[in-house]
Amino acid sequence: MSTIREVAKLANVSIATVSRVLNNDTKYKMTEETKNRVLDAVTQLNYIPTTTQRKKVIVANSSICKDAKIGCILRVTKKGYNDPYYMSILSGVETQLREVGIDLTFIKSAPILQDKISLASTFIDSLDGLILMEPLNEEIYRYIKKRVPHIVGIDTLRDDIDDVGYDHLQNGILATKHLIEKGHKEIGFIGGSGESQDIKDSKRYQGYLIAMHKAGLPIQKEWIIDCGWNEDECVAKVDDLCKSTHFPTAFFAASDLMAMAAMKSFYINGISVPKRVAVIGMSDIEMSQYSNPPLTTYHVPKEEIGKIAVNLLLARIQGYATLPQKIILSTTFVERSST
C-alpha cells in the first residue's frame, strides 16, 4: 500500500502539502497546479488516506448515524442532462436521508469522474457509504470500491454490491407482449446499452427478443434502433426509418424519454400514433402523461427504489452483514393512448 511520503515524492512537494490537499486546508495559499499534481499522484499510486474515526450520534429509538457521510453518483443523459427517471430516484434518496437528519455529502455524475483529478478530489475525504446509479467502467469502479466501505447500486447489475431496481428482462417481455396482444406482428425496439456498448446486453432488449420468438414473429435488423440513450440520435434514426419503404406497426421503447423522442419523429413525418404506429415506453416519468398522445408505459416505483436503497445502505453502515442482496420492485402497467 502506498504511503503519504511516496505521494509527496511523486508530486515533488512536501508531506505537509499533501496533507493540506487531502484535508482541504485553505489556511495556506496553494496553486491549482500544485493541488492537481498531488491529486494526480494520489490517483497514480492508488493512495488511500488513513480515515479517522468519527463520533457516532445515535438517533432516538434508532441506531442510524446522524453524521454518516454519504455520496451519490447520478446517471445523466448522453447530452449531460439530468435524466427524469434518475432524478425521481434521487428525490427518494434525499427524502429518506432527511428523515434521519442526513444530507448527501456530494452528488456527482459519471462523466465528471472520468477525469482522474476530479475522481481523486471527490474521494479524498472518507465516506461511510455511496448510492451508485451508474455501473461505471471497471477502473473507476474499483478505485471507488477500495475507498468506500458500503455501496448500494441502483440497476447496476453488479454482483458484489447490494442492488435495488426492477426486473428489466420481465418488463421487456411484458411491454412487447402488450403490443402483440394488440394485434401487432411487426414490432421494433428502441433503446441503448450500458458500458459494454452492445445493445444485446440490454435486459429489456433480451425481453423483447424472448416475447417475439415465443410469438413466432419476425425480427428485422433495421427495426432495432440503438440510439445510445440519446434523444437527438433517436429522433434522427427514427426519421431515417420513416423515410424507408417499410417500417413496423409498433415500437417498444426501453425508456419513456426514447419513446417520446420517437413520437416526436413520427409527428414530424406525419405518421399518426397509434393509428399507424403504436408506441409503448418504460418507467412512467411524469411528463409521459402529457405527451401527444399520452404514453402507454410501465410505472417503475422510482422514489421507492431510492428510499429502499438508502435504508439498505444505512443498515450496512450500522453493521448489517450478509451476502449482497438484489431487491426487485414490482412495476404497474399504465395504459394510455399511444397503443
TrEMBL record:
Pfam families: LacI (PF00356), Peripla_BP_3 (PF13377). InterPro entries: HTH_LacI, LacI/GalR-like_sensor, Lambda_DNA-bd_dom_sf, Peripla_BP_I. The keyword Transcription applies. GO terms for molecular function: DNA-binding transcription factor activity; transcription cis-regulatory region binding. Residues 2-58 form the HTH lacI-type domain. Keywords: DNA-binding, Transcription, Transcription regulation. This is LacI family transcriptional regulator.
